[in-house]
Amino acid sequence: MQLTDIYRYPIKGMAPESLSFAELEVGQPLAGDRKFALAHRASDYNAIDPVWVKRSNFVVVALTPKLATIATRYDDATGVITVTDHQGADHSFSVSKPEDMIRFSALIENYGGAAQPAPYQLAHIPGGNLPDRDTQTLSLQSIASHDAVCASSGIELSQRRWRGNLWCDGLAAWEEFSWVGKEISIGTVRLAVTERIERCAATSANTVSGERDINMPSHLSTHYGHRDFGVLCKILTDGRIEPGNKIQVHG
Hints:
alpha+beta; 251 residues
């Protein structure tokens, strides 16, 4: 078994950034993952006193499926966000420039709708991130499980649909569920597998068209008797991981 891909999502809800490696730290999420989110008009997010708030306070793919078509890259050194829209055009914004953030919000508002009222504000917690849960975890998905869902649905699904951080190959479909409660190592880094991930309507969005082409939670329930895909992991030791690292299960 081996690690094949690493992804982070600089802006919650948008498409991922592929990484050639990642430096993991104990008790932390993947660096730069869900670093930002888009707070909508009805959000409880407070820029003056920023703290973690629930996902309902942000623009999310479950309600705004076209958001999944927007690719993002974040330069940790310069604080520049580069957005690639659904037509392939790049737009760069500095998070330190208010005028850039106004332009950024105006661009993304074109993808919103009544369910996610504008105006939007780029939300950020200094030194923190904005995942769905107030826990520091990263997600791991299996290519074999993905291929099984492709076969049962009759759709050639993109891995991006699952919004995962780590992808692995070389195990049987759904074998990763048996890792819950155990520890795994990826290269020299040790992780605790804590729970399965129950999936929501965000996974129903086609990441190319931005349209819902399947009711994924219902499909999983009908074909597999659950609505889960992937597992959550906590980082137990510091270290570097990269695609090609071997994966071992302990316990």
